[in-house]
Amino acid sequence: MISTKNLYFSYTGFSPYVIDGINLEIKKGEYVSVVGDNGSGKSTLVKLMLGFLKPSAGVIISSAKRVGYVPQNNDFSNSAFPITVYELLNSYRRLLKIKDKTIISENLQKVGMLSFKDFLMGNLSGGQRQKIMLARALMGNADLLVLDEPSTGIDVHSQKEIYEFLKKINQEQGITIVSVEHNLQAAISNSTLIYHLEDGKGHLCTPEKYVNEYLRKN
Fold it and tell me: What's the predicted TM-score (pTM) here?
């Protein structure tokens, strides 16, 4: 689905590198959580995968037909921002050139937010906004979903619902998921693989191996 070969990146273009020679292959249908300390390069790696940043060296290859992205923060937390849930998804539908408007209701139904379609985005809770961003990211039949710390600023109940939804679409629909995580318990419980970043270098392993070889030794 997506792979990196000898990937390097620094914000100056020179050493030291935030991403230091990474070779990573994520296969179709995997659910990969990217973990590591603050400043380890997690969000930078995801931004490189999405094309938001250009590698200093190396290549990124993707076979995804459409990528859905859920950023860590959004611009709709201000209650004065005058856009409703429906308007937000409808503008994205037009951007994707999808003619059928029923896709809006269908995606809101998937995340349990159909009854909120006329609410202002700024009047929703953090968990509700995150569900809307998930519905938006999945429009257009995304086969790769990339998330940046999806549980940040969200209550525990909403976190549980969101992770259950992510696991469901991964297992039942085969949607490949790459999620930057600070929530280690969620990463261990939901992922098929964990990618641990440290000092710009990464290690891919199963959740069980991550617990046994990293967490218990640290």
Answer: 0.89
Q: Are strands 57-62 and 2-9 parallel, antiparallel or unpaired?
A: antiparallel
Average pLDDT for residues 132-146, to the nearest whole number?
Answer: 93
| Rg of the chain (C-alpha set) | 18
Which residues are CB-contacts of 142 (< 8 A; sequence separation ≥ 6)?
64, 66, 67, 68, 175
The domain locations on the chain are 73-141
Q: Which two tokens stand for residue 99?
A: 């003619």
Report DSSP state, residue 120. B
Q: What is the pLDDT confidence band of residue 167, given thresholds at 50, 70 and 90?
A: very high
Can you read off the two tokens belonging to residue 64? 């995804």
- Which is nearest to 1 in space by CA: 145, 199, 159? 145
Count CA within 13 A, CB hemisphere, residue 98: 17
Q: At residue 5, what is the residue type? A: K
* Residue 197 in this model has a pLDDT that exceeds 60: yes
